[in-house]
Amino acid sequence: MKHPLPALSLALSIAAQAAEPVKVDIQADRPGPVIARQIYGQFAEHLGSGVYGGLWVGPDSKIPNVRGWRSDVVGALKAIKVPVVRWPGGCFADEYHWRDGIGPQSQRPPRVNTSWGGVIEPNTVGTHEFMDLAEQLGAEVYINANLGSGTVQEMAQWLEYLTAEGDTALARERRANGRDKPWRLQYWGIGNESWGCGGNMKPGYYADLYKQWASFAKAPRGNRPKLVASGGQELELNWVETLSTEIKDRMAAVTHHQYSLPTRDWKKKGAAVGFPEAEWISTLAVPQTIDGYLAKHREILDRNDPAKKFAIYFDEWGSWYDAEPGTDPGFLVQRNTLRDAVLAALHFHVFHRHADRVKMANIAQMVNVLQAMIVTDKERMVLTPSYHAFAMHLPFMDATSLPVQLAGVPDYTLGKYSIPAVSASAAKSVDGKLLLSLTNTHPNQPLPLQLAVGGKGVRAVTGQLLTAATMDAQNWFDAPDRVKPQPFKAEARSGLLALNIPAKSVLVLEVQP
Ligand code: AHR
Fold first, then answer.
1. Half-sphere exposure (Cβ direction) of 364: Cα atoms closer than 13 Å
2. What is the Cα gyration radius of the chain?
3. Which pLDDT tens digit goes with each residue over 226-252?
4. N or C: which end of the chain has fewer CB within 10 A?
């Protein structure tokens, strides 16, 4: 095994060589469902500096930009081929009135963002600006409409404004505001977290409202967005049960949300850096829980929707820690460390495993908020460890999932948590490459692995390794490359390919059988 890590990892590798190797066997002859590239989707809410400052600086800014969107951030996001962006919220979506965000900037009404910090929402970024961002990114558009405090008519007219082709009053208004052709629109969410910030509803009440609203969510043939119903969170199953029973058509997907809180306590979630090992394992245990209840969701959907018309969109996920000291708690600013990168990879493995139903997932959130890809400070930007986890998994977009047989995986146990030390996911990429993603969740113990494809030996692997000296290693403005993928390769000796996966790491490999 060769990797560019220094003496510390060499010592750890030697320690691990004594252990029995974990056997990883990719079942290349048993192709599963395609891993929708939308599983690598993003979420940008009007929250803190998630939009203003982080993405949008305005056309007159000294920070280089294209029509107001900062070029450095857009360039970095293009490099991870952002497949879809959900906007404008979140909780913000259910208080957003689209007419506030069109027309001359000087006439746009300032409002209070009551969901996030009570700050003034200037409405500088509205429909035209967001659609421009999506076009600059080459991303699909997922707009979340306001069911909570809006009206059916308001929603219907927003859709018409976006998509009308003919000479209607709304199409004329759009043209007068600078956009001639209708935009392409892929996904249309009806409400967000309707059980909570979106209106505190019961699932049966929401299902009735959904049917009414979906009846008026109209767009020209060929440009009709997929309609998305707002589902439950965490372990709740009654939302997916009710929605998939009550709603028979005009619903492409039910959403689900789950955040990873180290302590599971919303009042004291746990620190983003300087946390104890107990909070490393408790955070990394969340994807395993998600795996369990996605299986339960699928059971319900398989019973109520055997034809598989309805997908699950996991449109909010990621770590949620105590706010960065000194920041407004309403802005959800937190540092991003190696723990977040491992957490992201574990989520990818779960979403891949359920790829027959999970057709979209959106990390919360894209820039400066919660488990962000990018952090900005005025003209500076830093790519987070989570960004690198996304970049490493690019070849998995639209790949065909493959089962992996794991044998001899030790448990990593601490306190009340116990998770497998090794997690794996394999796929065949669109260009025919055999891919393997691995994590070692143990913070101190490297592990020997032996790779096979269909029981036969592997010749070589090449790829990228992400690890760092500490569990909470972070990229920050003073050290932007502390956590960064390193090239990794290994070759078979005597017909067997053995390698050591370093402690607390993510490894993405192209496998040569
Ligand atoms: O991502 C932050 C918030 O978390 C979203 O606005 C809301 O939908 C969820 O509760």
1. 25
2. 23
3. 999 999 988 889 999 999 999 999 999
4. C
pTM to 2 decimal places: 0.95
Exposed / middle / buried, residue 398 (Cβ in 10 Å: 0-12, 13-18, 19+): middle
**Would you state the pLDDT for residue 235?**
84
Q: In this structure, are residues 321 and 262 in contact, taking their beta carbons and an 8 Å threshold?
A: yes
The position carrying tokens 């790949």 is: 399
State if residue 231 touches ligand 1 by the CB under 6 angstroms criterion: no
Give the CA-trace dihedral at 15, 17, 21, 27, to 10 degrees: 110
Please say if 193 is a catalytic residue: yes
Q: What is the structure's pLDDT at 71?
A: 98
Cα(116) to centroid(ligand 1), Å: 10
Distance CA 395, CA 431 (A): 9
Q: Which residues in the chain show pLDDT less than 50?
A: 1-18
Whether the Cβ atoms of residue 400 and residue 32 lie closer than 8 Å to each other: yes
Q: What's the pLDDT tens digit per position in 300-355?
A: 999 999 999 999 999 999 999 999 999 999 999 999 999 999 999 999 999 999 99
Return the H-helix or E-strand segment holding 25: strand 22-26
- The CA-based angle 395-399-405, given to 5 degrees, is 100
User: How far, in Å, CA of 402 to CA of 428, rounded?
Assistant: 7
- Rounded to whole angstroms, the Cα distance separating 444 from 271 reads 20
Ligand 1 atom closest to residue 90's alpha carbon, by position in its atom list:
6
